[in-house]
Amino acid sequence: MNSKVIGLDIGGANTKLASSDGKVVELHYLPLWKNTQLPEVLKEIAQRLQPEKVAVVMTGELADCFEDKEQGIRFIKACVDSAFGPSKVSYINSIGRFQRETDDIRELAAANWAASARLIGKELGDCIFVDVGSTTSDIIPIISGEHKAGLTDFKRMVRSELVYAGTLRTNLAALLEKVKLDRGWCRTASELFATTADAYLLLEEINESMYTCETTDGAGRNKIDSMRRLARVVCADLSEIKEKEIYDIASQVKEKQVSVLAEAISEVAERNGLKRIAAAGLGEFLIKEAAERLGFECISVSGRWGEEISKVFPAYAAAGLLDAQPF
C-alpha cells in the first residue's frame, strides 16, 4: 500500500479521494450541475499528489445537467483522463471489476458501492454492506465475496438496495409529511427549506465542519441558522415556534430516517439470508441504530479502518483494489 495509488469517487455533489495506504483522504464539494470545477480540481490533485495509478468509481452521471447516464459518464471520464493521463487511470464497473475497453461504458454508472463491496467481502465475509453518505444509502448484500445487488440504481431502488436519503442533502419534506408539535400534528411545507444536515447539526450527530454541502438559504452552518431553516419547514419563524419544538422536529427526522433504513435493510436481509451489517459513511450512527432495532450484528468501518476512511470508503476501496492488481 502506498500514497502513489489513489482512488477517486466522483459523485454528483462530492468528489472523494483516498490513497491505498489511507494516508491521503480528501473530500471536495463539487456539484456537477452548477458550473462545476471538477476539471480544475482534478488537475490540481494530479499536480499536487502526482499519483502513479488512479482508480475511479462514479455516481455523478445521474446529475440532471446530463441528458442521460452515458453523457455523464463520458464527461466524468474525459475530466479524469485529461487530468491524470488515460494510461494511469483504471475504472471500476458495477460488477466490481476493472473495466475493459470492450465493455459497455454504461457499466461504469453508479459503481462506487461495487468497489466497497469487493473489499468488504474480502475482509469481512458474508454481510450486508450499508453506506449512508451525504445523499444516499447503499444496502448491498455480499455472499461468498461477491455482491448480489442489482447492477443499476434503478434496479437497486426496486430491490430496496438503494434508499435515496442521506445525512446532509436530503430535503426534510421528502422524509416527513407531518411532524408532532406541542400543539398537535402539523403538515410540512414541500419546499426545500431545510435538509438532514440541519437536523443532525442540532442533534450533534455532525458538527459544522462536517456540514459540507450548501445550506438551503445561503445562510450559515450554525445552530441558530439551522433552527431558522427547520422552523420554515412548518412555515414558522423563531418568534412562532418553541426551541423545544424545533429540536423535536430534528428528532423526528432521525427517527424517520432510521425507520426507513431499517425497513430496507430488513427486506434485503430476508431476501439474502443475512443478519450481519458492515456500516460505513457519514451516517454510521443511523446504521447502528437500525441494526440495533433489527437485532443484527453491526461492524463499524470506522472502528476497523478509521472515521475518515469510512466517509470516503468507495475511494479507499478502489485504490486498494488497484494497488493489489498484479500489473
CATH fold node name of the largest domain: Nucleotidyltransferase, domain 5
Main sheet attributes: strand count, strand direction, barrel closure: 6 strands, mixed
Q: Could you state the order of secondary-structure elements as H and E?
A: EEEHEHEHEEEHEHEEHHHEHEHHH
Residue fraction in strands: 15-25%
Count the DSSP helices: 12
Q: What would the average pLDDT be, to the nearest integer?
A: 96
Distance between the termini: 14 Å
- Shape descriptor reads globular
CATH class placement of the largest domain: Alpha Beta
Percent in helix: 40-55%
How large, in whole angstroms, is the Cα Rg? Answer: 20 Å
In the CATH classification, which architecture of the largest domain applies? 2-Layer Sandwich
Spans where pLDDT lies below 50 across 5 or more residues: none
- How many structural domains in the coordinates? 2
- The count of strands amounts to 13
Could you characterize the architecture of this molecule?
There is one protein chain. This protein has 327 residues and is α/β, with parallel strands linked by helices. It folds into two domains: 1-109 and 305-326, Nucleotidyltransferase, domain 5 (2-Layer Sandwich), CATH 3.30.420; 126-295, Nucleotidyltransferase, domain 5 (2-Layer Sandwich), CATH 3.30.420. Helices cover 40% and strands 18% of the residues. It contains twelve helices and 13 strands. It has helices at 38-49, 69-84, 112-124, 153-158, 172-175, 196-202, 223-233, 243-272, 284-294, 301-305, 307-311, 313-323, and strands at 5-10, 14-19, 25-29, 53-58, 89-91, 127-132, 137-143, 146-147, 162-163, 178-181, 184-187, 276-280, 297-300. Helix 1 (38-49) packs parallel to helix 2, helix 3 packs across helix 12 (313-323) and helix 8 packs across helix 9 (284-294). The protein is globular.
